[in-house]
Amino acid sequence: GKAGYDHFMQKEINEQPRSLRQGLSERVDELAGEVDIGDLAYLNPRGVQLVACGTSYHAALYGAALFREAGVPAQAFLAHEYASAPPPVGDDLVIGVTQSGETADTLSALRAARSKGATTLAVTNVVGSTAARECDHVFYIKAGPEIGVAATKTFASQLTALNLLATGMVPTKDDRESIAALRDLPADVQEVLDDSSAEAVAEEYLDSDAYFFLGRGLQYPVALEGALKMKEITYKHAEGFAAGELKHGPLALVTANTPVFALVTGDGEQARKTIGNVKEVEARDAPVVAVTDGQSDVERYADHVLTVPESSPRTAAVLSNVQLQLAAYHTAAKLGRSIDKPRNLAKSVTVE
Ligand code: M6R
């Protein structure tokens, strides 16, 4: 059942501290500053291709960025595009990111990769799923069953699993910090859930024409995911943009009736640049909702702040996403939408 919640989606959002703890348990050795991903640590890929659809594609974009950060060429592909024109695969490891393990497009992409001789790895939630059975290797995200059509806790677990895989396959000098942040992640997510003011934000902007989401680097996939969640359960127009793209077209859409969610964590170059974009939308009178850990001065330009605890860049993405899940959920709830079964959508898309 829904364990006292109004919707499965709400239950699953609130379950994230537990589902993340489950996915991390026995996989992080904090004393040694290492992660344990078993034999997958020896795959030693020359390059990585990730294939996925929807929310899982956003996780794949994040995973690709992590491998690239560690010096391994990596790219995420929409599975349907990949399957219809597979790129050269060489010695690349091909990772299928699929919660259900049954998405037809993702299975086709993985089959195309295998037929070209690639080694394949399924990152999935479902034990014994088709992807788990057909791939050479499998890594379970261990999120537990997800009933809501909108993927929430499984996205958090996918990001975390890809973090573990990238760290385990390609160790780097930054691992200690990001492993410590992984240890704190479940408690940090709990803090977001306990303190979020996303419901007030949802209330204030209920009548908006559209919702925009801006992110850069590891926060770019989170911006895409925030928009997907908003559109699928509220039926409102929502778009996620790479913050740097704003001036190349999307800025034309920005008005006083299009709230902009800006993902700004840390105080580095990326935060500074995204704050530049925030100033641009503010100058067009758009309401700004900053999702921030308070390390930069983005609050000065924001109408609302959704706070996340300070963390590493990798885990900051997971934490920021929880605020966007809540913003979408509360908007849909106030609009009286069919949150667990949005119109026209199915939990698992088993036809191409
Ligand atoms: O089971 P999969 O992860 O392969 O599903 C892929 C997409 O259909 C899925 O992520 C979809 O976009 C989400 N349910 C949307 O919330």
From TrEMBL:
GO terms for biological process: carbohydrate metabolic process; fructose 6-phosphate metabolic process; protein N-linked glycosylation; UDP-N-acetylglucosamine metabolic process. GO terms for cellular component: cytoplasm. The keyword Transferase applies. Residues 38-175, 201-342 form the SIS domain. The keyword Transmembrane helix does not apply. The active site is at K347 (for fru-6p isomerization activity). It comes from the Archaea. It is found in: Cytoplasm. It is an enzyme of class 2 (transferase). Its EC number is 2.6.1.16. Catalyzes the first step in hexosamine metabolism, converting fructose-6P into glucosamine-6P using glutamine as a nitrogen source. This is Glutamine--fructose-6-phosphate aminotransferase [isomerizing]. The lineage of its organism: Archaea, Methanobacteriati, Methanobacteriota, Stenosarchaea group, Halobacteria. The gene is glmS. The chain holds residues 250 to 601 of 601 of the full protein.
